[in-house]
Amino acid sequence: MRDPIRQTTPSLPTPSQGARKEATSGPRSERTHAELLAHWECLNNVEVQQPALTEAPAILNVAAWNIERCKRVPETAHVLRESEADIVLATEMDLGMARSGQNHTTRDLAEALGMGYTFGVEFVELGTGDPYETEIFKDVPNMYGLHGNAILSRYAMENVALLPLDAGGQWFTDTPKNDDQFRIGGRMAMAAQIGGVTFVAVHYESESDAQGRADQTRRMLDLIAQEYGKGPCIIGGDMNTAA
Q1: Is the pLDDT of residue 147 over 70?
Q2: Contact 182/25 with Cβ under 8 angstroms?
Q3: What is the number of alpha carbons within 13 Å of residue 27 lying toward its C-beta?
Q4: Longest dimension (CA), the chain
Q5: 200 in Cβ contact with 233 (< 8 Å)
Q6: What is the spatial distance between Cα 45 and Cα 47, in angstroms, rounded to a whole number?
Q7: Which residue from 150, 105, 144, 147 is spatially nearest to 130, judged by alpha carbons?
């Protein structure tokens, strides 16, 4: 199991198409996955852009939303403005994916809302997505193929961390949905402190059962306690329950 990732950068390094092609054509082994997970910089850094405002008020509005690739940034921003959210715990955000216009959806959404953000990579997608997306974009390669979770905030974020929830590799060595979705990485949560409160955006494994999600929950809570200690904590995200 990986340790929490605290290394931050204003712009994530991205894997080249050549590196992703090599990963696709190489052996689908746990060892190969572990090497890629350890050495690809995008999986070992967290992107942070701080907002203009620093001190958070005593009362905050918080939204949690699985935005499902965030393919429609203007419409998404409109909904969040209507909610008057100060903090958004966002899951399933794309960066350089054909299905979402090759956009950096977290950055674009944050700019539309006048917020800062932190974004971490859950998976490097080596394909173009699910069967529907693959059919539409089969002739359009991903620019970067990054997919992950984010926290957007009107107020300064401290102690940002990516919290790994499993060892990863399930989507690299096998195809859990039997649909050729092929990925490097593992399930994770993004965490940050804002105004003395810990906020966590979590995305659980879809191809799991109640026990698997309970294990990921215990792992998340242990890491929150380890990294942030006692204190108020707000967790939002997606249980990702399999049908």
Answers
A1: yes
A2: no
A3: 6
A4: 52
A5: yes
A6: 7
A7: 147
Buried/exposed 53-76: b ≥16 CB within 10 Å, e otherwise:
eeebeeebebbbbbbebbbebeeb
> In the beta sheet, which residues pair with residue 194?
197
pLDDT at site 178: 79
Check residue 177 and report its DSSP letter: T
Spatial distance between the Cα atoms of 117 and 199, rounded to a whole number of angstroms: 12
At 168, list the tokens: 């990863």
SS3 content of the chain, % helix, strand, coil (to 5): 30, 30, 40
Neighbours of 230 (CB within 10 A): 7
Does the pLDDT value for residue 236 go beyond 80?
yes
pLDDT digit string, tens, across residues 33-74:
999 999 999 999 999 999 999 999 999 999 999 999 999 999
* Nearest residue to 169 via CA among 120, 129, 230, 124: 124
User: For 13, how many CA atoms within 13 A lie in the half-sphere containing its CB?
Assistant: 12
Q: How far apart are CA 50 and CA 43, in angstroms?
A: 20
Stretch 66-83: mean pLDDT: 98
The pTM assigned to this predicted structure is: 0.96
Per the CB < 8 A criterion, the answer to whether 89 and 199 are in contact is yes
Question: 10 Å Cβ neighbour count for 24?
Answer: 12
Q: For residue 136, what are its two tokens?
A: 């539409």
CA distance 149 to 131: 22
Q: Look at residue 241 and tell me whether its pLDDT is greater than 60.
A: no
pLDDT in tens, 184-229: 999 999 999 999 999 999 999 999 899 999 999 999 999 999 999 9
